[in-house]
Write a structure and sequence with these properties.
The chain has two domains: 3-139 and 158-188, Hypothetical protein, domain 2 (Endonuclease III, domain 1, Orthogonal Bundle); 229-335, Nucleoside Triphosphate Pyrophosphohydrolase (Alpha-Beta Complex), CATH 3.90.79.10. It contains 13 helices and six strands. It has helices at residues 3-17, 29-39, 44-57, 61-66, 69-76, 83-99, 107-111, 118-128, 138-147, 157-172, 177-190, 209-212, 327-335, and strands at residues 229-237, 245-249, 259-260, 279-289, 292-301, 312-315. The structure holds iron/sulfur cluster. Residues 143, 146-147, 191-192, 197, 199, 202, 204-205, 208, 210-211, 216 line the site of iron/sulfur cluster (SF4).
Length: 340
């Protein structure tokens, strides 16, 4: 099937089947940007619970640029992958300083902004401004792999190169770049899903090489498995007379600025392990982060501790939601019967 026909079918399908999502009201560039960053690595249902709250807190790019890093990461708590919040704020500062507070339209200008890569630049340019900018994310790479029966494995550089080339051809022949790119993303989310794609209702099935060959299950080719790492992290729960919990601020790259519970020996969290004498086991819980399967073992530390260093702070557990913290902290407090 010719590329212009594939593009036209995708656009008209999107017009009929698009979900009413908050960032699709008016396609305001800042709102589109925030949605795209949140949707990277976080499921749509989770994002919907945070999106409007985040925008009420930081309604404009200027509000986000002026906010402290603590406020932004606290508002991000629960969405995970906190580097995104830090980069979004840095990007907002960049927009204020170099573009007078106006998010630029061109992919090149967008890609010059801190934290904006090729995908996000293409998404803002096409969805907010209607520019002919291609985008490829995991959903679109999967659709393209099936449409053109591409043999390169999932996430491989060869598949991504091919997907970008096809995305460029599609956008070049589109009538509405906004509808085309969102249509491809929406098809990936609702129809051409990773498992059991619903080819029966797919507008592209007549042009789909995998469907025509009866080989839908074979594409995209699986990627080589990444081994999961089992890890064990001892956590120390130290509570003072007022019920406040001792917490430590992470300075490493992975979760910089986040408040953690003090830990024992581990290679995952930075900072010196806390040396404790008497500790009573409260229990364990499991937590998965990408390919790490972590068993946290929580200990109550009953003896008074001398903690030096500015990275330590006493935190009232009732105020936990006001400070940036990874989700395992809440799990640990719940295990100990502390907090909501
Ligand atoms: S026909 Fe099936 S495999 Fe092909 S693009 Fe549509 S949903 Fe995906």
């Amino acid at each position: 099937m010719p590329t212009p026909r594939l593009a036209a079918l995708t656009e008209s399908w999107f017009q009929k089947h698009k979900r009413p999502l908050p960032w699709r009201e008016g396609y305001e560039p800042y709102r589109v940007w925030v949605s795209e960053v949140m949707l990277q690595q976080t499921r749509m249902e989770v994002v919907l619970g945070y999106y409007e709250r985040f925008l009420r807190r930081f309604p404009t790019v200027g509000d986000l640029a002026r906010a402290s890093l603590d406020d932004v990461t606290a508002a991000w708590s629960g969405l995970g992958y906190y580097r995104r919040a830090r980069m979004l704020r840095e990007g907002a500062i960049d927009v204020m300083e170099r573009f007078g507070g106006v998010i630029p339209e061109s992919v090149d200008d967008l890609m010059s902004i801190a934290g904006i890569g090729r995908y996000t630049a293409g998404a803002i340019a096409s969805i907010a401004y209607g520019q002919r900018a291609p985008i490829v994310d995991g959903n679109i790479a999967r659709i393209v792999a099936r449409l053109f029966a591409i043999e390169a494995p999932l996430s491989s550089p060869a598949l991504m190169r091919s997907a970008w080339a096809h995305a460029e051809e599609l956008i070049a022949s589109s009538k509405s770049p906004r509808d085309l790119n969102q249509g491809l993303m929406e098809l990936g989310a609702l129809v051409c899903t990773p498992r059991n794609p619903n080819c029966r209702v797919c507008p592209l099935r007549r042009g789909c090489a995998a469907f025509s060959a009866g080989r839908v299950d074979e594409f995209p080719r699986p990627k080589a498995r990444v081994a999961t790492r089992e890890m064990h992290i001892p956590l120390y729960l130290v509570v003072d007379r007022d019920g406040r919990v001792l917490m430590r601020r992470e300075s490493g790259q992975l979760m910089r600025g986040m408040f953690h519970l003090p830990h024992g020996d581990t290679t995952l969290l930075t900072g010196a392990p806390l040396r404790v004498g008497v500790a009573e086991t409260l229990g364990t819980f499991r937590h998965t982060v990408t390919n790490r399967r972590i068993t946290f073992e929580v200990f109550a530390v009953t003896r008074r501790l001398r903690t030096r260093g500015r990275e330590y702070a006493w935190i009232d557990p009732k105020l936990l939601s006001a400070i940036p913290h990874p989700s395992y902290v809440r799990k640990a407090l719940q295990l100990a019967g502390i907090g909501q």
